[in-house]
Design a protein that fits this description.
Layout: H1 2-18, H2 22-29, H3 33-44, E1 66-69, E2 75-81, E3 84-88, H4 94-107
Antiparallel strand pairs: 1-2, 2-3
């Protein structure tokens, strides 16, 4: 991913200096215009690398709960609703837990 990002930083730089439309620039280089637009968006938003990614395991639940699981090394388990249960490793900043929970709720 890092190598692809470096390549796209260079390509987007060339596009911005070209003065061409996205369609013309992409066509001249044989790049799908949707891919060009996607990378422009990613790079302007800070890209995927700026957002920490955590593994997610989806399991069923019947009652909202939050608990610290000592059997799992102190992991924090948060059941947002009957369809969403999150488990964070010990030491995860509470602000990150709140942000992930809010983003998932807004998308589900």
């Amino acid at each position: 991913m890092r190598r692809a990002r470096e390549i796209w930083v260079s390509i987007i730089g060339q596009y911005e200096k070209s003065g061409q439309t996205q369609e013309a620039f992409a066509a001249a280089r044989g790049i799908p215009v949707g891919t060009l637009r996607s990378w422009i968006y990613k790079l302007r938003q800070g890209g995927a690398e700026s957002t920490p990614m955590l593994p997610v395991r989806v399991i069923a639940s019947t009652a909202p709960t939050a608990r610290q699981d000592e059997d799992e090394g102190g992991a924090v388990e948060l059941v947002v609703d009957e369809w969403l249960r999150l488990r964070f490793p010990r030491g995860t900043p509470p602000a990150l837990i709140a942000e992930v929970t809010a983003r998932l709720r807004s998308r589900c």
